[in-house]
Amino acid sequence: MLEFELQGLSKAYSLPQEQRCVVALQRIDFSMEVGEFVSIVGPSGCGKSTLLRLLAGFEQKSDGVVLHRGMPVDGPSYRRSFIPQDSGLFPWLSIEENVMLPLHVKSFSASQKHQKAYACMERAGIASFAKAYPWQLSGGMKQRAALARAVAMESHVVLMDEPFSALDEASREAMDEAMLGFFREKNMGVVMVTHAIREALLLSDRVVVMASQPGRIFSTLTPPLPKASRHHALEISAMHEAILETLKGVV
């Protein structure tokens, strides 16, 4: 079974005032294995976020096929968690309440909900902030809360749109380690949109490079070496430079 299967996926937007149509994505063909970590990189405006929203079910395709575990994606589902750039936490709820949100649709008792939410927060390293509110936390802590909520949701795959763009390098590395541990433990798939090419190469099983006008897949790369051995590997540096050169030619 595949996590995602895309066949001829296209997305166009009508601009009535300008009497024209903009093609955001054109004939995307792609498949992803269960538990795989895929990053999407490419120039601004190439349709990366549009593709992610189509996978999430937040937008409707113009043409083609989008399957999640063999079923058509025709709207949002608890089987697909979405973590936006700003973490997506509700500011009027505490961190614990935010993490518990997905549990309200399941047949858990109140005590079971609290226990499960606490276990997810503890795994994410934010249990001591359970009663705090999002505005009281740093960017990194808010993203940890978003990860804890995704795990509590027990979805099949997590879709992330530039999740750590506002963090400093040290915080990003800490979040990268926490994220890999989370998803490896639960065998959850990940699709991450990022401008950080090196981060994509360090974390991913495959990196999808997109081109623009219209948005399309230009190439798909598999980083060499096990993830634990990539940080200082010359092969990763060489691949990073190669992707940068490629992007200069496909913008």
Q: Could you explain the architecture of this structure?
A:
Residues 4-237 form the ABC transporter domain. Pfam families: ABC_tran (PF00005). Keywords: ATP-binding, Nucleotide-binding, Transport. InterPro entries: AAA+_ATPase, ABC_transporter-like_ATP-bd, ABC_transporter-like_CS, ABC_transporter_ATP-bind, P-loop_NTPase. By secondary structure, the protein is α/β, with parallel strands linked by helices. Helices cover 35% and strands 27% of the residues. A six-stranded mixed sheet has the order 6-7-8-3-9-10, with helices on both faces. Helix 6 crosses helix 7. It is globular and about 50 Å long. 37% of the residues are buried. The mean pLDDT is 88.
Structure, briefly:
The chain has 251 residues and is an alpha/beta fold.
Determine the strand fraction and express it as a percent band. Answer: 25-35%
Distance between the termini: 34 Å
- Contiguous low-pLDDT stretches (5 residues minimum) are none
Strand order of the largest sheet: 6-7-8-3-9-10
Number of strands: 10
